[in-house]
Fold each of these.
Amino acid sequence: TPFFDNKASFQRGVNQVVRRTAIQLADNLGRVRGTSGINSDLQDARGNIQFDESTWYFGTDPFGFKTPTPSYYRAAVQSFRRFNASLENCEAVFDARADNLLQLLDGMASDLGNTSDILRRRSEEFNAGWFDTRADDRFWFSFGQLYAQNALLQAARADFGNVIRERNLGTVWAEMERQLQASLRIQPAIISNGREDGWIMPTHLATMGFYILRVRSNMVEIRAILDR
């Protein structure tokens, strides 16, 4: 609906990052250079977290009772926890190599590029200001995406600490985190999608898009250093 869906949009943004990370964990981070077998817990988590977001207990396509989406997501959480427990017991692998960090950042930068384009198109094609009832969906989706990436990158800073030190990434990594945290301080009570040169109704989508591109530029810079 046009109203009361901000939390759902935020959650979809978070879920998008979790899905991307689940793929990276199963395909790269949770195995040794792609030659070892895929961790079964990560494989299960990847499959469950990709389940669609709108299935409830009963549906019409096909008609009948169904397993709701939250059940799949809870199963994915349990799989991630089992993998984490295996890591603690040295029974699983987390391959914190530079090329794996590069691929992780590459996927995140790609997602941010797509989100910035969504914000740009909405900002250019609709200038209804406070009365754009879909602008908040785009804003809170991007906010959720940045929120999840901020948490993920803080964890990655610890997991890939050796790579960050060896490649002298500390300064640019800190700047990336600073830009992420600055973007998360933008929390207007009502989202406005006004003209960029307007003086009455602000353009929160363009503001969020600006911060997204700043974060993405830091990611691209780190990728370039890792790729040398």
Amino acid sequence: MWHFPGLSGCATFAYTELYKEELRELPLLLPRVWSGLSPSTALTMGTLNVSIAFFFLVVGMCQVLRWLSKRLLSPRAYGCLARELAGSLQLCMSCLELRMLMEIGPWGGGFGLDMVLTLLFLLFAVHGASFDGASANPTVSVQEFLLLESSLAATAAKLLAQGVGTGTGWAVTKLFWSWELTQFHFIQSLISSECSSSIHTSLPHAALVEGTCSFLFHLVLLKSRQSHPLCRVPALAATVTFLTYTAGSFTGAFFNPALATATTFHCTGNSFWDYIQVYWLGPLAGMFAALLLYQGNIPRLFQKNLLYSQKSKYKIPKVKVTVHEEGDEPKRKRKGGKSNTEPRA
């Protein structure tokens, strides 16, 4: 157990009902706590190394899970269930650990946003290369359904696997934090059960932010679907990093309903319906708008293109039409250049 000057008794009152209100205010007190710590107890490279080792462990574990599932399950079961479960598990655990570094890091002695964004870009690049076609995002699965690329049963199975994967990832990450391997993990273990809402603006604005992030993400995803992975993966990772940097202070910039459900829905500050509006309806509306703008139609709902005209790829030759005036006799020539008219005297 770690001990901090000015935090005596924290490990005791954190789990009692008597000090629930104090625990909710603990994140506001952390800057003052860190200012009272000696430099040797601030964030060191050892703390960062523990988190990086955790990232490698998560990716390796999920790769083993994918490898075993591909050999033990049918291709259909692997594509709809195991692949999505492994991808969601990997995404949730990585994002939770990274979010912990983002929230507590600035108070720990120079661990700034630039390092967090660099880790975010690298993590999503690794995710894009290792997911093996999984989306780990309900809006992407619904998009595939609307594009007639997935059946209703397959889409429902993917959504179920994503929910199970993110829920399992949240539980495993909390267990990892409870080991208190570093001072950051000790503090995160204290405040994880009494977290506050990630919505720091009005509900309409928050829903608009999540919808806009989802809209831009899906536009890039649709545009890069046929691109080579060497181009597609960095483009998507850069898009996620930019959107997180831009919108993270408003809503956390999840634009992933499953990830948001596992990490924020249990937090105090907003109701369940508020979270549904922001983290489910907002991203789904953004995906729908991006698909309509890119395609011009929604194949699952209607085939008529509302935005773009369909031009035929075959050119129809133009026919030259000659109009003769009344009273004019057409002159026809026989073969050999002789005229049909009789010679005049």
